[in-house]
């Protein structure tokens, strides 16, 4: 059956982006058109969401968190400090059975260098993408964003392990402004995605292990009702 490609149609001008950045940095993404609003007409049609990014960025842990599972629960995606995903594996959402998350291998490993990865992952089979990034914006993040956009697909950019970033900052600075640091991280992601040719990127900051912090609940509500 035909699959509907979700297409958040938010389009921000630079002036609007600047205004959003001056507002509450942890809430401006609420203005993004929720992906879940695109599910209304799907009925039994399956929506395939690919979760991609570098090894160690937390792709599998993110999928488990989205499905409200721990890594040792039955049916959970395998997690670890090394790349545990050697081929795309699909996991149905527990609440919306027509939504399937695909855990893709990590880009940039010896087995999947960037050029080989983009050739072999067959991005055309997926309707929507989640790019998971951590620590800092990397060249492979830009490569993924460019390829997804080239194919006419849409994506959310997710910066994971934000709790680790703030903890590291606290270890180096006795006093720092958490809101300002979150703004710096968000704006750095936006700037680099814009340099990669994505004028209005949708960026979420999350911790997979504490879903009450940052943008996790907002991101989940934009995908799953």
Q: What descriptors fit this protein?
A:
alpha/beta; six-stranded mixed β-sheet; globular; disordered N terminus
Secondary structure elements and pairings:
Elements: H1 14-22, E1 47-53, H2 59-66, E2 89-92, E3 99-103, H3 114-120, E4 128-133, H4 139-150, E5 154-159, H5 162-172, H6 178-195, E6 203-205, H7 216-223
Parallel strand pairs: 1-3, 1-4, 4-5, 5-6
Antiparallel strand pairs: 2-3
E-strand count: 6
The CATH homologous superfamily is termed P-loop containing nucleotide triphosphate hydrolases
- Outline type: globular
Radius of gyration: 17 Å
Strand order in space, largest sheet: 2-3-1-4-5-6
- Briefly note the CATH topology name: Rossmann fold
Q: Average pLDDT across residues? A: 79
CATH architecture: 3-Layer(aba) Sandwich
Tell me the number of helical segments per DSSP (H or I, 4 or more residues long): 7
CATH class: Alpha Beta
Q: How much of the residues is beta strand, in percent? A: 5-15%
The rounded distance between the terminal residues' Cα atoms is 23 Å
Largest sheet, strands/sense/barrel: 6 strands, mixed
Structural class: alpha/beta
Percent helix: 25-40%
Number of separate domains: 1
Low-pLDDT runs of 5+ residues are: 1-13, 20-31
SSE order: HEHEEHEHEHHEH
């Amino acid at each position: 059956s035909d699959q509907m490609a979700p297409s958040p149609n938010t389009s921000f001008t630079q002036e609007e982006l600047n205004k959003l950045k001056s507002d509450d940095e942890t809430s401006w993404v609420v203005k993004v058109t929720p992906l879940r609003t695109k599910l209304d007409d799907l009925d039994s049609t399956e929506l395939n969401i690919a979760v991609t990014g570098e090894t160690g960025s937390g792709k599998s842990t993110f999928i488990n968190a989205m499905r409200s599972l721990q890594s040792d629960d039955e049916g959970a995606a395998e997690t670890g400090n090394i790349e545990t995903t050697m081929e795309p594996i699909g996991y149905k959402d527990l609440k919306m059975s027509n939504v399937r998350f695909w855990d893709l291998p990590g880009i940039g490993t010896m087995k999947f260098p960037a050029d080989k990865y983009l050739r072999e992952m067959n991005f055309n089979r997926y309707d929507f993408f989640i790019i998971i990034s951590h620590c800092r914006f990397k060249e492979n993040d830009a490569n993924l964003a460019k390829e997804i956009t080239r194919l006419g697909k849409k994506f959310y950019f997710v910066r994971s392990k934000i709790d680790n970033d703030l903890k590291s900052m606290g270890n180096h600075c006795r006093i720092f402004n958490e809101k300002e640091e979150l703004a710096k991280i968000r704006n750095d992601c936006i700037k680099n995605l814009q340099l990669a040719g994505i004028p209005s990127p949708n960026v979420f900051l999350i911790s997979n292990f504490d879903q009450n912090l940052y943008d996790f609940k907002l991101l989940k509500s934009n995908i799953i009702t």
